[in-house]
Amino acid sequence: MSETQRTWSEAESAHYRASGHWQGVTFAALLRESAAVRAGHVALVDGDRRWTYAELDAEADRVARGLRGLGIGRGDRVVVQLPNCAEFVLVWFALQRVGAVPVHAMPGHRRLEIGHLVRVAGAVACVVPDRHARFDHRELMREVRAEQGPGGSLRHVVVVGEPGTGEGFVPFEALRTDTPSASGPGSGPASGVASGEDAADASDVALLLLSGGTTGLPKLIPRTHDDYAYNARACAEVCALDARTVYLAVLPLGFNFAFACPGVLGTLMAGGTVVVAPDPSPQTAFALVEREGVTLTSLTPPLVPHWTDEAASGSWDLGSLSVVQVGGARLPEDHARKLGPALGVTVQQVFGMAEGLINLTRLDDPEDLVCATQGRPVSPDDEVLVVDADGRPVPDGTEGELLTRGPYTLRGYYRAEEHNRTAFTPDGYYRSGDVVRRLPSGHLVVVGRLKDQINRGGEKVAAVEVEEQLLTHPAITAAALVGVPDERWGERSVAFVVCTGAAPGVRAVAAHLKERGLAGYKAPDEVVRVPRLPLTAVGKVDKAALARQLPRP
């Protein structure tokens, strides 16, 4: 264990190994084993590009040699901010081959978030596209490097596409060149980078995921090879994945949901095929379902009505599609009841967290459980407590905060010891901040959150972070961001502001936050001017009172 990573006790670790949850195999070795068993089976599809398992394994070796040529090795942290493309998967496994640690960033993150991730992780490199969604990520990286200064950790920016100009900017294609100039000395096919199995230990941190960031900028979540592989494998078993599975990655690959619940990793570990969708539109997705024979995909609730509306056109053959998962936010029950018949699929609700615990409805659950609950834990060793405000367990059916620990739930955030002291109980339970009701069957119904966080269609917005940036606007003297129910997004954000002079509108606020380096999805959906912010008896902003000022939907 490093000084930045809390971990499981020796007794717990021994139990998880004896139970077969932790199998002592790294992701580099898992890919190598899969390539040996199913060399010619298609593993990855992106547009017209295809890789068999043998080709994916060889490509991981090739990119790993290029990374080693840049001096990237075991334990180095590398921020990966790529949209949905095959390169995300290629880079991810190449980093595993050299024992480096990918840090999953979202495509919509901007200077504030990426700079934070680089600083906290001590990242030596970032991997970005040249441009995505009309945004130039190369310029973003120039800003991040300038803010970091000459003493910062960031040495390289790997660009998928045209690298442009800038010291340390490296084209991704240069990493794939099997020559000494690209790979560096001693990186031939027989090198340790090519074999990769000894580059890391299964108890090492394999990747860093992002928390929802309820107290400002996101915390980093360390996931080991052992625990994250079990996460993906347990979900794959519940979903009955096998070599015939064709998973369509619609949501961003950097999301834990799309990557390992079971997602990309679960599919590859089961011997199936991953198809990458460049965007989540039903037209794009349905065309891929037809062409590739997709059997499984994952959505967030805001996508569901768009998919059901498009399916009603009758223009698509969706006969291969068997299961549609919905997670990231609570799915309204009426949407859940419409989705299955509209697409001719089994609906599976997913409630989980990048910190660990994953709950799935089962494929043979009764309709009422599928439509009205958010599933039950995937592992027999997931420990779940539902407790009152004093930490005492409450009876089934009673609302309380969800606490959890288990074989794939973290024991501490990365480099966040002060936060860890309150985020975990003394006996290792993670305080999720989610308010749930547990049924006698073990299924959970998500009621809300204790944390001051807005879940806008699966995108987590920390109120504190946005409020701090709102206060930098010259006209705003006080601000509170409140989440309110919304039929489309689940929740939308409303900024209540106290101003001197005229109050800025929604567009002006969004432009200001963009200039401050905040991701676009964090801008408030509505701005309401108030003469003052109401306070509770203990002097805190009374957000419930603010929400009551809005007209009911």
TrEMBL record:
Keywords: ATP-binding, Ligase, Nucleotide-binding. InterPro entries: AMP-bd_C (IPR025110), AMP-bd_C_sf (IPR045851), AMP-binding_CS (IPR020845), AMP-dep_synth/lig_dom (IPR000873), ATP-dep_AMP-bd_enzyme (IPR050237). Signal peptide: none annotated. GO terms for molecular function: acid-thiol ligase activity; ATP binding. Transmembrane segments: none annotated. It holds the Pfam family AMP-binding. Residues 32-414 form the AMP-dependent synthetase/ligase domain. Gene3D superfamilies: 3.30.300.30, 3.40.50.980, Luciferase, Domain 3. Residues 180-196 have a biased composition (Low complexity). Residues 465-540 form the AMP-binding enzyme C-terminal domain. Residues 176-196 are annotated as: Disordered. PANTHER family: LONG-CHAIN-FATTY-ACID--COA LIGASE, NONRIBOSOMAL PEPTIDE SYNTHASE PES1 (EUROFUNG)-RELATED. This is AMP-binding ligase. It comes from Streptomyces coelicolor (strain ATCC BAA-471 / A3(2) / M145).
